[in-house]
Amino acid sequence: METIRNWLLPALLATGQIAWLWPGAGLAGEGVPGAAALVAVLGAVVAETAALGRRRRAPVRALAWSLGALLVGQAAWPDGYFGVGAPVALYSVAVRCPVPVTVRAVPAAVGVEWLLSLVHVGVRPALASEWVLGALLYVVCAGLGEARRQWLRGRSLATRLLAGAEEARRRAGDTERRRLARELHDVSAHHLTSVVITADAARRLGDSRPELTSEALSFAERTGTETLTALQRLVGLLRDVDRPDPPPMTARIEELIAGFGRLGRPIDAVLPDDLAGPAAEAVHGIVREALTNALRHAPGAAAHVSVLRGEGVLELSVDNAPPRGSAPDGIDAVDGLGSGRGVAGMRERAAAVGGELTAGPAPGGGWRVRATLPDATGPWGPPEGAGRRDVLREQRLADPALVFTATLLPLVFALVTAEEWTGASLRAAVPGLLVVTVLLTAHAVPLLWRRRAPWPAFLGVLATSWLWPAAVAAAALPSRVSEFFAGGALAELLAVYAVAVYGREAARTWPAWGAAAVSLSGTLVATAGADGELSGEGSMWPAAVLMFVPLAVVLAAVFAGLWGAGLAVRRRRLRILAWDDFALAGALWHAERAADAERHRLAAKLRDAVLHPTAALVEQARQGRLEEVAAKARSALAAMRELLHSLGESEEDTGPGLAPAPTAADLDTLCRTVRTAGRDVTLRGLPEAARDLPPAVALSAYRIVEAALGAGDRGPARVTLRRRRDTLRVTVSGVPLAVTGPVAERLKVRVGRGTGHIALEQAGVVRVLLSTRPDPAPAQEEASPSSHA
């Protein structure tokens, strides 16, 4: 289908040119070029056709070749070579390229056209009309192309938003699992780990330090109660839908640091007084994770927490010294209590707010965690005014092109007749032409605001038209010049159309066409009366009335039809945008429902696995049973770890259960399924390329091939996987429907989630390059937070 779209128009233009070459020109009595000129014309047709066939992939190159073909064809056959390819190629440049490229392309095309006009016409008055007409042609093509580019840009943006929403819907369950896993790790793991450490220390030192038993029981009861509260929030008792503006976090972070200090380690901190927002939440989570790791692996070692505010960023550092030979109060390093994802969790928390985090050994020993976070203190969610851009009103070339056309098109007819004027009449008409040019320009300038302010632009066009009879009366313009004011009616046509398309409450914009008909009829009649055309017909007023009424009726019919066309275009566009909004809202609704279902399913597992053992821990602490407290804490911590590992098993939302996600190794099964459906699919390079791939890469490869093969093509396809060093190359050919439209946007979203690159070729080839490098934050980093641990 894409190939037909690329070559249909060039083929039609070439067929029309060849048909005019033979037998059209001969039948019309026109001269036929000789042998050499015939070869040159045919060569120009071939070059132009080949260039236009690639106008979508290489528009600038297509324009250059089309202009070259225009020069050759016009030189060989000035009266018979059409050269329509150059305006078409310029239109493609405006559609496919940025505005600066189009702005540079228009003078190049106009320059070639002016050069040909100078050669063919010579230095005569008619040359001016040729130049104006040539400039109008290319400027209008560029303006229409820019309008089309803006519309396609809006459609692409809507498609990308919908693709992102569809991807969010597909991953809603997995996203909710990850969020709950992070929250569970941040809350339960740290609280329960602290209970285990303090209970074990109190049990070992109970004989020499009996007061530690009561302190450990009190700490276990207090911490268990906090854990219960946090877990109840996680199971859905508090829905986190409309998050309020975040309160200041400095006091909470200071309380967190003081709590760790009470466990027997010296900690000093430097914090701003007004930490708030997502970055402050991330600081709280990272500090809690870092100090817990230090407590687990370097007990008793001093720690330093620093948060410094720079230019729009927060610089966080958490440093702990190497562990001492023996920890105070008998608190030893505790192994085996972590979930194995502490450093990775801190990196995820930093990345969630747009920051970065590094963790590793400090130069002088010990361990250092450093993070750079954006200093955003506002509410969670997208910034105000970050919605979809109104591309219907955002034009940079279309409206200036229309103003240029409305100004100069009436002058083209005047310049065409200038060839018939004698020297004296030409000299007398030049000042009048300058006045007409100025007035037509002032009449058309309000069209620049026809999208943003259609009614003021419309009223401005009507008001400036009444300058015409005043100028004719004041400057005594001859009738042969003032009659070209009638060409300024093009501005009224455009203004009425703009009111219908862009005005508010479109159904109530109908007075625009009536007002335009009455105003323009009155202007033209007044102009005719001012230049004396009505004075020779007896009394001027009856003649003016006889001229005004039929003219108003005709113009009213024309304006009403144009207003109706604008209203139809407006409704069509609004239907398209409404469908986009409906589809986007539907995808987001389904994503929220999927997240709710996953949340409720996991809530039951969370209650059974962690909430009930934690409640038993609190009860045992209230009864003063230290041994049972330690046992329940370890049991709850083990259940929490098992739940965390189960939450991390799946990368995709695969349904009500936690079934394993498909990987690249399953592509053979996918291709067999497609072949069963009647489509020829070839798979190459699977066993070697899919071996030992990271889970995320294996899943992405499968989803990319699945989306490309499911685009709707019916022809044969080929899937090739190639592994080279740290990259996996996935190539899917024979899928022309996958390189454009929603499928292409979904593929871009999928690849954009990771460290990959994608290339979509118009021939129907999808090429993806995925990095197979392992996660730079391996789990064993948490197991060794200090070089001395």
Report the total helices: 25
Q: Tell me the structural class.
A: alpha+beta
Please give the alpha-carbon distance between the first and last residues: 65 Å
Strand order of the largest sheet: 1-2-3-5-4
Rg from alpha-carbon coordinates: 38 Å
Could you name the ranges where pLDDT drops below 50 across 5 or more consecutive residues?
A: 237-246, 326-340, 378-393, 649-659, 775-789
Number of strands: 10
Q: Report the sheet with the most strands, covering strand number, pairing sense and barrel closure.
A: 5 strands, mixed
Strand percent estimate: 5-15%
Overall pLDDT score:
76
Name the helicity range: 55-70%
Tell me, what's the shape? elongated
GO molecular function, one term: phosphorelay sensor kinase activity
Pfam families: DUF7134, HATPase_c, HisKA_3
InterPro entries: DUF7134, HATPase_C_sf, HATPase_dom, Sensor_HK_TwoCompSys, Sig_transdc_His_kin_sub3_dim/P
Organism: Streptomyces asoensis
